[in-house]
Amino acid sequence: MKGSELEISARTKSAGHGFDNAQRDALYRTIFSRRDVRGQFTAEPIAEDVLSRVLMAAHYAPSVGFMQPWNFILIRAEETKRKVHGLFETAHREAIEMFEGEPRETYRNLKLEGILESPINICVTCDRDRAGPVVIGRTHIKEMDVYSTVCAVQNLWLAARAEGLGLGWVSILDQDRLKQVLGIPERVIPVAYVCLGYVSRFLDKPELQSVGWRPRLPLGDLINFEGFDKAADDPFAIGLLERVRKDQKKIEDGG
Amino acid sequence: MKGSELEISARTKSAGHGFDNAQRDALYRTIFSRRDVRGQFTAEPIAEDVLSRVLMAAHYAPSVGFMQPWNFILIRAEETKRKVHGLFETAHREAIEMFEGEPRETYRNLKLEGILESPINICVTCDRDRAGPVVIGRTHIKEMDVYSTVCAVQNLWLAARAEGLGLGWVSILDQDRLKQVLGIPERVIPVAYVCLGYVSRFLDKPELQSVGWRPRLPLGDLINFEGFDKAADDPFAIGLLERVRKDQKKIEDGG
Description:
The structure is a homodimer of 255-residue chains. Chain A is of the alpha+beta class. Helix content of chain A is 46%, strand content 13%. Chain A has 9 helices and 5 strands, in the order H-H-H-E-H-H-E-H-E-H-E-H-E-H. Chain A has helices spanning 2-15, 21-33, 48-59, 78-98, 101-109, 144-162, 175-182, 207-210, 235-252; strands spanning 70-75, 120-127, 165-169, 188-198, 223-225. In chain A, strands 1-2-4-3 form a 4-stranded antiparallel β-sheet, with helices on both faces. In chain A, helix 3 (48-59) runs antiparallel to helix 6 and helix 4 (78-98) packs antiparallel against helix 7 (175-182). At the A-B interface, helix 2, helix 3, strand 1, helix 4 and helix 6 of A face helix 2, helix 3, strand 1, helix 4 and helix 6 of B. Strand 5 of chain A pairs parallel with strand 1 of chain B, so a sheet runs across the interface.
């Protein structure tokens, strides 16, 4: 019987590549408690080893054709931050005019960036020429390299959360002017401009959810089967949607 | 002294939002061991609760203006998979012609998708009209909603890894034809088509790195200061780059 026991455990091992419950839960905790931080930054400096780890997380993101098309421009100087903050202010004034009525007042009062308060800003760029003109996996969808760069941003964001660092993505900026300020060449896209720093607190829910701007959508409404917006009524589909409803309720109730 | 002790621990608590070492390491383990899976899928079915969790992880991604612009089209039917696989084959033949010489032979021999072998395929889409024409944070960078959708894909990918599920992103497809197959309306972009399933093994390194297609770049070469491609020689910058070099060596050596 010894031999067959060994065989079973070898098979189990080769099939069981999941993490244990505590490790898996740590990932979900990171994902569910991650916030887009704008108003809670403190001036506490970020140590070299912490910054190294979060940048490493970004660098080990998936990339189309293994391009690794990203650069990470670290911005620490007050002078550079002030220039970028000026770009935000201009874009923000333009944005206010695009809203009307009550939404305009709500929008005007939202704190939307922490450029000056956070100790480090990072511009994550995508160099479209990094791997020559023909890239595996980018032959039919040209934006794949930009998507890879966004994956790096999301890894950075999650690593930051696990380190107790807040991250806020500032997208109310004119990209051409940002390229001028940071000396970014023509072929390179500044995909994300993020603020990074320790925080006084992480909000329980996303701020736009709390202020009633938009509700969290029920995930079940967004799951389709075989085609866009198509439903299914087989036992697996019904069971999945029921499970999704319960899981989401637990998260929204703070469980 | 009691009062001051309490004060300190309250302060420590408010500043200490990081996770403990084991939780933080679980996230890094997920990030560093995630792979783009193409050739190692097994037919083992995915249980409802596992699928619910990985889709929930995707749904709790950041989204510009809290748009949550995504839908998740689950594809289980052999017939749908065969149609999409046909699109891959056409695009793949076109792609082969774009490479020349030795790279063409290497490319031809790579396994690039697991559409038919994986039990579930998921098309993650972006509905650009989900929150009306004016969206907070999308006023100046129109692609922000697509970037949000990519963040959802990356969350899905990491959650899958922690659950022991492999995920492979199939980008060698004509998006217009994919929209026809899945009945996706004009306003909606099929951002990612992914294959999901248990695996016989996770590769130690990305396959394109192992076959020598492209090396893993030294992260230190991609970190800039204050401007694109700009260096810095202050103690923090020097210390950071030294730490990055050591951290990356440890990862590449399998530590």
